[in-house]
């Protein structure tokens, strides 16, 4: 095979890879395919890795991210979020933490129970209605970046902490 023919085949092969990447789902669409709302991740996910056999995943951001919700919940996302995903369950999470009183605690599990999202830090958990997570928060300002107001999260009073 001549050099120009090999070059043309390489260009065709590389362009097909680029096209396939353009058609691949986003990290937010992957969340939705496992029955989670896209608002579990802040805006700006650059990409992800997913092993469909094991459910092991990594989501990548340009840097760490922090914001407040409801004035009392402070969240931090590292530049890489990892864990295992299956239908209605995210387990062995790393890279997401929430400030509770004076302590930063890692969110280690998220479970969807019907219309509620339950977040566990290991020794305690809290549930919120799923409609709090239809919109992706934005780094720095959370859910209401347009007019600077912090939107109140709805809570589920029937979930207790240990």
Automatic annotation (TrEMBL):
Coiled-coil region list: none
Signal peptide: 1-20
Pfam families linked to this entry: DUF538 (PF04398)
UniProt keyword list: Signal
Family annotation (InterPro entries): At5g01610-like, DUF538
Gene3D superfamilies in alphabetical order: At5g01610-like
PANTHER family attached to this UniProt entry: F22D16.19 PROTEIN, T31J12.3 PROTEIN-RELATED
Name of the protein this chain belongs to: DUF538 domain-containing protein
Species for this entry: Vitis vinifera (Grape)
